[in-house]
Predict the structure.
Amino acid sequence: MTDPVSAPPLHPITAESFAIIDREFGPHEALDPAEYAIIRRVIHTTADFDYRDRLQFSEGAIAAGIAALHQRRPIIVDVTMVQQGIRGLVGQTFGNAIVSAISHPAASPSGAGQPAGAGPVKTRSARGMAACIAQHPEAIYVIGNAPTALLTLAEQIRGGLAKPALVIAAPVGFVSVVESKAAISTLSVPQIRVEGRKGGSTVAAAIVNALVMLACLS
């Protein structure tokens, strides 16, 4: 059993914002409280109530994420912006290592250090993701920007090379975004997805931070 971890107190403005979201969201008693906590944090970050319908949770995903945080599993992110968005709260609480795929040496154009058999990866984030998977196959994976990183993760899961504790799938944009989310949705891994073209690094970070706060209460 891990030592108990206290959640940092909410800033008064954050608490007031949450109260406004609760009022404008309307009745939500039918929602799972943990799912609502994550949805509310994302709405707080984006001011976009569309996320009430876009966030999808596989069965047991939140519990799996909380357990992985308590176990201090590494958190692999696709880009440094996600890393920056979660570093403060993760550092104050569980202290999980946070690794940015795009900053991995294998992400360089030469692909130095890319593991053998990683497949035809092209982008920096995809190359770095393949290398991170080889080193941390059971980590928490958070994709907030690069659909190629999510496609690489899906390919590695299908090949039995990755067994993520949790996948947070929130890339944003127009090229391969919907396809990458569809690819991960077919796999039997704990996952939290943002459906459609929406998402982004700030959304991915908000999901992680909401999970951290939930983990502090468990």
